[in-house]
Amino acid sequence: MDKGSYVLLIRVAKEAEVKTRGRSFNILPGYYCYIGSAFNSLSERVKRHLKKSKKRFWHIDYLLDIGEVLSVLLLPSSVKSEVKISSLFQKFGEAVDGFGASDCQISSNLYKISEEDYFRAIKSVHEYMGVFG
């Protein structure tokens, strides 16, 4: 199955202003989790995110100009779960309001998170995915 959701763990080394097509976000140094989904090709979407050179389209493309992807969690599923997974991360991290969630019913798909809370959030996601995963 090549559809579902994914989580990118991103490290940002220094403070930066990330300008997207219409918004600016002040990004502080630290770790961030970005939650996304792809129901055409999960593997191709993630490969695209990992490329250094690409046309910017999504908010995450702009953030990855300044951040480094440290890990990727693929969550194959036929059930759309991006909003639920993002809401689980909201319990553990600090939302970057308005980032990457324009097509969802949540305020953000990007969370500044500590290393310790990252593992707690991933555990929570695994528990949730076990219900239908």
From TrEMBL:
Residues 19-114 form the GIY-YIG domain. InterPro entries: DUF123, GIY-YIG_endonuc. CDD domains: GIY-YIG_COG1833 (cd10441). It comes from the Bacteria. PANTHER family: ENDONUCLEASE III. This is GIY-YIG domain-containing protein.
